[in-house]
């Protein structure tokens, strides 16, 4: 995830850096080093074959279609989640 702080002194430089990271060759190089998939479709052919063909990194479309993310929770739910998770981790 990339973010630009609200009070960034040079947001135009931050946007330029993000645009650089999204260039296909740069995104592919990052994937080749980190072994994490990237969202730049034009980068996929540039990723090392061993990584590109690893189904745990780039799952097939039928598997990807079943994936989901959690919705953003309201603050009161986040607070409850954090409290319960802390209780589980600390055993209290």
From TrEMBL:
Superkingdom of this protein's organism: Bacteria
Keyword annotations from UniProtKB, A to Z: Signal
Keyword Signal recorded: yes
UniProt cross-references to PANTHER family, sorted A to Z: NORSPERMIDINE SENSOR, SPERMIDINE/PUTRESCINE-BINDING PERIPLASMIC PROTEIN
Record protein name field: Uncharacterized protein
Provenance organism: Stenotrophomonas nitritireducens
